[in-house]
Amino acid sequence: MRPTILLSILACLALVGPVPVLAQDGGAAEAQALREAGALEARGWLDDAEAVLRVLMEEQPGSVGGLFALERVLRSQGRPMEVLPFTRRYLDSFPTDGRVRYLRLRVFTGIDSTSALARETESWIDLRPSDPEPYREASKLWVEAFGGERALDLLRRGQVATGDPATLATEAGDLLLRLGRP
């Protein structure tokens, strides 16, 4: 291709702006949108990064990377709760995904909504009552939100639910040390 034609094509693309995510295949489109949003975020153009990520999440609601990036951008703008509808939509398809469940818990902790944090924790536990993950992950945030004693109670509840006292023992022991109890 002649250099003048190539330059003309590049100039036209620059005028058109970013290629819409819909015009590409799923994985490549997600990666491109995440790169573009990251570059915009790095420049401090948070509104533009948010717009790219919102489009990505509308077109690919199963993008975990998009969820975490959108939460980060929204948190930087003081609006982390706006990611919650996107996480709910994701969890409608993948209800047991611990990464997104933990993201929701983190948002509730960050906005100081202890009642929502408690409800969301119970919702996660109800889906997987004998799995230690919800107890382990939620307890980390419960220390901040409710204090060490309630977090310890949650870990102990998890030990009973799993039927194995050794499960979550490390987390419970670490928390006891932080509380100054042997």
Report on this model:
The radius of gyration is 21 Å and the shape is elongated. Helix 6 (98-110) runs antiparallel to helix 7 (114-127), helix 6 (98-110) runs parallel beside helix 8 and helix 9 runs antiparallel to helix 10 (169-178). The protein is built from ten helices and no strands. The protein has helices at 3-16, 26-42, 46-59, 64-76, 84-93, 98-110, 114-127, 132-146, 148-162, 169-178. It has 182 residues and is mainly alpha-helical. The model is unreliable at 1-24 (pLDDT under 50). The longest helix is centred in the first third of the chain and has 17 residues, at 26-42.
Largest sheet: none
Structural class of the secondary structure composition? mainly alpha
CA-to-CA gap between the ends?
A: 74 Å
State the total count of DSSP E strands: 0
C-alpha-based Rg, rounded: 21 Å
Overall morphology: elongated
Mean pLDDT: 89
Strand-residue proportion: under 5%
Helix content: over 70%
Features:
182 residues, elongated
Write the layout of secondary structure elements.
Blueprint lengths: L2 H14 L9 H17 L3 H14 L4 H13 L7 H10 L4 H13 L3 H14 L4 H15 L1 H15 L6 H10 L4
Helix pairs in contact: 2-3, 2-4, 3-4, 4-6, 5-6, 6-7, 6-8, 7-8, 8-9, 9-10
